[in-house]
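dude i think i finally got it to work??
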Amino acid sequence: MDLKKIREEIDLKDSLIVKLLNDRMELAILSTKLKTKIEDGDRENQVIENIKLNARGLIDPEFCANLYKQIMTESKRLQSKNYSVIGFAGEHGAYAEHAAREWNDVLVPVPCLDASSVFEGVIDGVFEYGIVPVENTFGGVVDETNSLLIKSDVNVVGAVDLPFHHCLLTLPGTDYRDIRAVYSNQLPLTQCRNFIARNHLEPISYGNAPSAAKLFSEKRPKAAALIASKASAELYNLEIIKENIEDYNVCRTRFLIISKERNTEGGNKCSVQFSTEHKAGTLFKILESFAKEDINLTRIESVPEDSGSFVFFLDFVGSLDDAKIKSIIGKMNDLTGELRILGCYNEKVVK
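look at this
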């Protein structure tokens, strides 16, 4: 191992340490949602003692103790700011995180294992908001989100329509001519199928794209590349070989912002959920009422339930304060069972 390789390993370890510190600060912020005060002397002493006990090898226990005292000081500083949190599924660098920042860049985005964990965090009050994908121009409807909306008592308070572009990433110093395999989630691999075939690369599916980026930076596979976002390159110290490698010019995902609280500021779009009786013409009458008032429907989906019946989702342009919309909602109450207004909100369309 030469000096260059050693320095590359040091850079990798440093980037991992900084990322882990950021993850720790996020957990510290989350802890404030579940405790009554920031200062907890007993807990801090316990952490310091654990750090001393776990100090191994070359590291002096007192050095570790002093380092962690600074870390805890920074944690308390961040906790005192009373940040609001938005949960998203995946790792940092995910398109959902990008969408969350587009909606409100003051919120702290926190990664979750999956969409179910996002809903759980919102319902439990650990997250003020959650962001979940609901439809994709390539993959279609996100069934998991619709199913969770049916089962969960949450409100839709916003939406973001986001374009996304995939990049080909490599470890620093990699010669692109040596690349033989490419890692990513199955969806990006499918969306970049022509690029992969054209360059004679072997696609290797792994988790989601940001998870693959994390694995890629840690495992450092030889003769390999990664398909992920530009943000993943910055987060995991990777180099961008080529941008916009997706096969289609228009790749967009629409995300919903969910919360325990209703949006009180109004908006230009509404989402409702309802079921209908097994009676001919019921759904037609509902859709007809929108058409007669010239109300634009932007989404209509049906989701089967365990009972064999269907739940429908409608998104439409307008405000619940509008007299026409109020009239339509009144008719829907007469025609449907279990009508639920998910929310009226503003939707941001990112160019």
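The chain has three domains: 3-79, 85-163+252-349, 167-243.
im so relieved honestly
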